[in-house]
Amino acid sequence: MKNLKSYSKFLSVFCKFIVIPAVIFSFVGGWFRGDESWNEIFAGFGYSWDAMDSLTNIPTVSKFLGMIVDGLAYLLLFVGIFYFLKLLKSFQEGDRFSLKTLQLFKRICKVALAWVIYTPIKRMLLSIITTFFNPVGQRVIKITINSGDIFNIFFVSFLFVLASLMKDAYELKSDQDLTI
Amino acid sequence: MPIIVRLDEMMARRKIRLNELAQRVDITEANLSILKNDKAKAIRFSTLEALCKALDCQPGDLLEFKD
Asked: How far is CA B33 from the centre of its chain?
């Protein structure tokens, strides 16, 4: 129990001070990197962006739509992190296998599944949005599933298995609590 | 549940209250209440032994099977 509390506390701090800022940084960096001042900041950190088309010359309408489409994925990520932090808080309070933690875990699974399904769709939409105003012959629709997506599917499936295990653990604990 | 716990009957026969029995058996009143109200899923032998000692009875006096 002591280990679970320690790990939960560490993860909670790590999420709040490293993961959340990194996610915000990633979103801002992706969409504002065309700006000179942002480029200097990111170059100083050695930050590299992986795959999106250059955003420096796309029209404002496309940039705005792209931010919404990309932002939705980040919103899902934030919702998942929020539920995860709530779950960690329950673990720190000593509440391991209860209805609350089970429901939180199920919600995390659903958000993760939504994120995995949305990621390739987002990629396709962004390719359309960022190249929509390009000359004919230079417009792109990207329909891709890469190894990262395969890994994500595996990871989400594993989360669902864990959720099922947690449900069994909750039922066992309930029986244990009613054993006098 | 087919197994019925006749704890309240035995307590009435021995004229003992719930809180007193809980102290004698070293179980919380809440747990004893769960047992009394047929909400328990299982009972440990150690608990059954302690109850039988405290109420001076046999396990059969406390537990009944009704299909």
From this structure: 9
Burial class (CB in 10 A: 0-12, 13-18, 19+), B58: exposed
Give the phi and the psi of residue A34 in degrees, each rounded to 5: -70, -25
3-state secondary structure of B65: strand
pLDDT in tens, A41-54: 545 444 444 434 45
Q: Evaluate if pTM is beyond 0.80.
A: no
**DSSP bridge pairs for A93:** none
For residue A179, which residues of chain B lie inside 8 Å, CB to CB?
40-44
Contacts of B39 in chain A (CB under 8 A): 178
Render the burial of B25-38: b for 16+ CB within 10 Å, e for the rest. Answer: bebeeebbbbbbee
Closest CA to A53 of A30, A35, A70, A74: A30
**Nearest residue of chain A to residue B31 (CA atoms):** A180
Residues of A in contact with B40 (CB under 8 A): 178-180
Q: How far apart are CA B49 and CA A137, in angstroms?
A: 86
